[in-house]
Amino acid sequence: MTVNELAEKLGLERVFVAEPDRIIEGAYAGDLLSWVMGRAKPGNCWVTIMTNVNTLAVASLLDLSCIIICENSEIGAELSDAASAKGLNLLRTGMNEFEACAALSRLL
Amino acid sequence: MNRYYYDMHIHSCLSPCADDDMTVNNIAGMAALKGLGVIALTDHNSCANCPAFFKACRRCGVVPVAGMELTTAEEVHLLCLFPTLETAMEFDGEFKQYRVKIKNRTEIFGNQLVLDEDDNVISEEEFLLPPASSLTLEEAAEKVRSSGGVCLPAHIDRPSNGLIGVLGDFPEKPRFGFVELSANAYGGEYAVALPDISAYGVVKNSDAHHLWEISEAENYVTLDDEPYSGDLIRRRLFEYLKGEKA
């Protein structure tokens, strides 16, 4: 499934989408960035509430396919600017992490 | 120039997780016994015991610093230190609006006691102190600095609530001159893989929640203290922490 298809099916807000046709390979959920950094895999869709700009550094480092920010956690201009600068896919939803993961597991 | 042994991260009985025996006079007395010259009171998200702490420290001949261990929205613990008691209390008053209003349940979390200078309980903080405030790390650092204070990421070697554990690495903003390492550095499976910190000044504090955890006279700063006064030492300490004078 591509990032674009996922955003469509789950009705996700496209904060910034650099690569709509990027294939999603599995998913990972977590908010402690040092923890995620050592465990998420390239291609994963990452479910989190963390909107510090370091979130994008982790996604970029691990070559994740997209980030889904849950519970409409506030996204500052710095984060969306960094997503466009790094060419990352940044999505957002009102779902909490459990709901987002449950929805993802039905699709992936 | 003289060596000032310090412990700039101590919790009083205002922090629910700290022992009720962490009264301001017990802390000041223990610091004096251990030969510490400068100590800071840094309760979770509150400076409410700092006025009594200042009086207790003066009795014991220890230089007090008013502080707060602020929890940012990302759940990073930020050690905030203020140049005077007045600036700390002003910051504390403004900071209240950013705290979450969850009622403390003393049977689960512990007491949050506000004391007078004789260790009498004068009130109890109603809302639980440690949870994340609504200030991001960047916003919090900016507010502390504009108040004249200094802030440094607390216990960055600790996985929970340490800046590196939470954010993976130093963010581009805010910039810090100093970082805090735990007095008893974490090791084994709980150790955080630290990035290169050679560009930072390092302070080692106890993060004491019990009397016996307060630092021994091990970590010091060398300060020019002529003509001697508590105010001068505090001022020199802040110049040091702000990187104005090595």
The CATH topology name of chain B reads TIM Barrel
* Fourth-level CATH superfamily of chain B: Metal-dependent hydrolases
Helix percent band of chain B: 25-40%
Task: Tally the structural domains of chain B.
Answer: 1
SSE order and pairing:
The complex is a heterodimer of chains A (108) and B (246).
Chain A: H1 3-10, E1 13-16, E2 27-29, H2 33-37, E3 45-48, H3 54-62, E4 66-69, H4 77-86, E5 90-92, H5 97-107
Chain B: E1 2-10, H1 24-34, E2 38-44, H2 50-60, E3 63-71, E4 77-82, H3 85-95, H4 106-109, E5 113-115, E6 121-124, H5 137-146, E7 150-153, H6 163-167, E8 178-182, E9 201-205, E10 220-223, H7 230-241
Parallel strand pairs in B: 1-2, 2-3, 8-9
Antiparallel strand pairs in B: 1-10, 3-4, 4-7, 5-6
Helix pairs in contact in B: 1-2
Structure description:
With 108 residues, chain A is an alpha/beta fold. Chain A has one domain (3-107): HprK N-terminal domain-like (Udp-n-acetylmuramoylalanyl-d-glutamate--2,6- Diaminopimelate Ligase, Chain: A, domain 1, 3-Layer(aba) Sandwich). Chain A has a five-stranded mixed β-sheet with strand order 1-5-4-3-2. The radius of gyration of chain A is 12 Å and the shape is globular. The N and C termini of chain A lie close together (7 Å). Chain A has helices at 3-10, 33-37, 54-62, 77-86, 97-107, and strands at residues 13-16, 27-29, 45-48, 66-69, 90-92. Chain B is of the alpha/beta class and 246 residues long. Chain B has a single domain, classed as Metal-dependent hydrolases (TIM Barrel, Alpha-Beta Barrel). Helices cover 26% and strands 23% of the residues of chain B. In chain B, strands 7-4-3-2-1-10 form a six-stranded mixed β-sheet. In chain B, strands 5-6 form a two-stranded antiparallel sheet. In chain B, strands 8-9 form a two-stranded parallel sheet. In chain B, β2, α2 (50-60) and β3 form a beta-alpha-beta unit. In chain B, α1 (24-34) packs parallel to α2. The longest helix of chain B is centred in the last third of the chain and has 12 residues, at 230-241. The mean pLDDT of chain B is 94. At the A-B interface, α2 and α3 of A face α6 of B.
